[in-house]
Amino acid sequence: MATAPITKPASVRAAANMTDYDTLCAGFSWDDAQALIDGLSDGRMNIAHEAVDRHVASGHGEQLALRWISKSGSQQDFTYAALQTETNRFANMLRSQGLQKGDRVYALLGRVPELYIAALGTLKAGCTFCPLFSAFGPEPIRSRMEIGGANALITTARLYKRKVKALRPDLPDLRKVFVIDEAAEDTLPLTDLMADASEEFTTEAMNPEDTALLHFTSGTTGKPKGVVHVHQAVVAHNWTGRIALDLRAGDTYWCTADPGWVTGTSYGIVAPLTNRVSMIVDEAEFDVARWYDILEGEGVNVWYTAPTAIRMLMKAGTEALQGRDFPALRFMASVGEPLNPEAVIWGNTAFGQPFHDNWWQTETGGIMIANYAAMDVKPGSMGRPLPGIEAGIVEMDPEGDSLRALTEPQAMGELALRPGWPSMMRGYLHEQARYDKCFRDGWYLTGDLAMRDADGYFWFVGRADDLIKSAGHLIGPFEVESALMEHEAVAEVGVIGIPDETAGELVKAYVALKPGYEPDEDLRLDLLGHARKRLGPAVAPKEIAFRKNLPKTRSGKIMRRLLKARELGLPEGDISTLESDET
Ligand code: AMP
């Protein structure tokens, strides 16, 4: 917090979408944001109408909506008119295959055009869209498809064969699987079906409270949570894209997130398209030279990325930037994990402007706290709440049974938000009690610890629970523990996140073995391989350590907190409930 703020030149302040934060906050109502979207007759709406159809209707059909860059570097462009045609075809294709309003359409795809067409076409048809990260292994896929009751899946022949085919008996609701390439006897050819489908489709006029998107997020215990978002969320997506990312119609915008995670949908599809930008989609994984080529060659104006990627760019050093120039780059933002002050400052040196950190989570649907274009940036801070968002720092009142807001500067507590913004989740699917637990005394509790300084800037302190953030992906220790428990040698397992310079945290598992098994290197590799196969590389542990016993409470719960304190050499805290502990 000691680092000096990075001030913004007057020209940058004057040109920003939001020039005066305090004035806008004071006079703001969500009706103002609602007025920025089109809506459909009789108070109905559809996210896809706001993202695509209305721009074609207002004469911008020829503007580039999406430029796809394939792994090999070839490009495919879609104007807003082309996106309209393709999404109409997709919606018609769903209808012809018997999928109706309210059905759940899943996608398990890399960043290919079909993913974006499927997302918007699904919404047009009034179905719920649920993206799955393509690097998930079969286990996370099964649980998410089961919980959501997937009715259709869009994927590739290879992903289907490797990860889904064997699960089909467990997924009785799954009526259709469409593949974007070669279909087999139990899958359908998407391209052929779309070629036969009409280009005309009347976008379903949805009730604003109808479900639009289903995103899964991890819990510390139990299964992943299906987070329900409704069409009304588009009001917040559009508004936050404009205010927190400074998006302007006609901008070239690049969000590096995968739509398998919420950022890649809210800010990789909905916010940019509703703000009528031209977005870049890169199919390939992170690569320093490739990323700089895209930023420079495509003339990116607004770039939204993540701390792990920024740290990897920093590692590559300034040599990688030599001879490059980014005159078009107007705004750079970051989300998903804590962004270290050094990374913010490095951005300022390397690109002539800081990275603007912002904070939100799957449940909030959109950005809640941000560093804005017109605001001075305090390196290491997440910024200030959006106009329309009230954020507080709360703790349980030691005297009573209620929350109290901590108003004194620098007080540390749980980050809480006053519910009521349009993109707030409407529930955890089938889990009312788990949802209800998020709310107390008029606050939504985020599960993050934070503090606020005297200028109203918020600072992330850590998670209040055991969830792990690795390379921007939120990982539930329970899901990892469950997969390892399936292994015949495992008696007990506890999973924690350990600090890592690049990825923020790495998943580490502590394993106690059943009698008759030896904790040797072969078994360690076998366990790592088993977890990777079941969970996929993004979720599986990177390290495994053997223990004779794991620290447990008297009720038998493994004390991850204690495992972590020991790993990091921190004080063990209250261990009065500790039962067995022979390590
Ligand atoms: P997810 O729901 O996967 O988007 O993860 C949300 C969680 O990521 C938050 O509750 C935080 O723990 C973490 N997170 C998101 N943005 C930030 C940020 N700017 N700084 C620190 N942590 C963040």
Automatic annotation (TrEMBL):
<dbReference type="GO" id="GO:0005829">
    <property type="term" value="C:cytosol"/>
</dbReference>
<keyword id="KW-0067">ATP-binding</keyword>
<feature type="domain" description="AMP-dependent synthetase/ligase">
    <location>
        <begin position="55"/>
        <end position="429"/>
    </location>
</feature>
<dbReference type="InterPro" id="IPR025110">
    <property type="entry name" value="AMP-bd_C"/>
</dbReference>
<dbReference type="GO" id="GO:0006085">
    <property type="term" value="P:acetyl-CoA biosynthetic process"/>
</dbReference>
<dbReference type="InterPro" id="IPR042099">
    <property type="entry name" value="ANL_N_sf"/>
</dbReference>
<protein>
    <recommendedName>
        <fullName>acetate--CoA ligase</fullName>
        <ecNumber>6.2.1.1</ecNumber>
    </recommendedName>
</protein>
<dbReference type="Pfam" id="PF00501">
    <property type="entry name" value="AMP-binding"/>
</dbReference>
<dbReference type="Pfam" id="PF13193">
    <property type="entry name" value="AMP-binding_C"/>
</dbReference>
<feature type="domain" description="AMP-binding enzyme C-terminal">
    <location>
        <begin position="479"/>
        <end position="557"/>
    </location>
</feature>
<dbReference type="GO" id="GO:0003987">
    <property type="term" value="F:acetate-CoA ligase activity"/>
</dbReference>
<dbReference type="InterPro" id="IPR020845">
    <property type="entry name" value="AMP-binding_CS"/>
</dbReference>
<dbReference type="InterPro" id="IPR045851">
    <property type="entry name" value="AMP-bd_C_sf"/>
</dbReference>
<keyword id="KW-0547">Nucleotide-binding</keyword>
<dbReference type="GO" id="GO:0005524">
    <property type="term" value="F:ATP binding"/>
</dbReference>
<keyword id="KW-0436">Ligase</keyword>
<dbReference type="InterPro" id="IPR000873">
    <property type="entry name" value="AMP-dep_synth/lig_dom"/>
</dbReference>
<keyword id="KW-0007">Acetylation</keyword>
